[in-house]
Amino acid sequence: MMKQDPINEKILRALSRDGRISNIELADRVGLSPSACLRRVQELEKAGVIKGYRARLDPAQTGRAFVVYVAVGLAEHTKAAQMAFEQAMQRADEVAECHNVAGAFEYMLRVEVADLPAYKAFHTDKLGTVPHVRAITSYMVMGSSKDVRA
Length: 150
Hints:
This protein is an alpha+beta fold.
């Protein structure tokens, strides 16, 4: 793990907000020369601290404005059951995130679809047909006051 200093933390915050910021503007914001700033960004990339850059998409424009968090419980607690579930979620375009969690259920999904009928189709035709799924609890997002994901 790369040790972070205050300058690197400023760089990471700025890039998290705007991954397309020019090196000159970034250098100005963090108080470095452009060459020193570029060197630090390249070091952060090489060390794997910066894993990549993404475009933030408008969910309404892409037909994915209906967001549901889904808690999934498995009937079997085996490595094979977990791997099969995770592979099925990798193939499901509606699943934006799949997390193995500790607690009352095994997985938390972030599902993004166009609307309630599209979620019902995903719930019934895809998630509901995955072997070993024992329980599905859906939490529809009604609004988001904070979202810092890229």
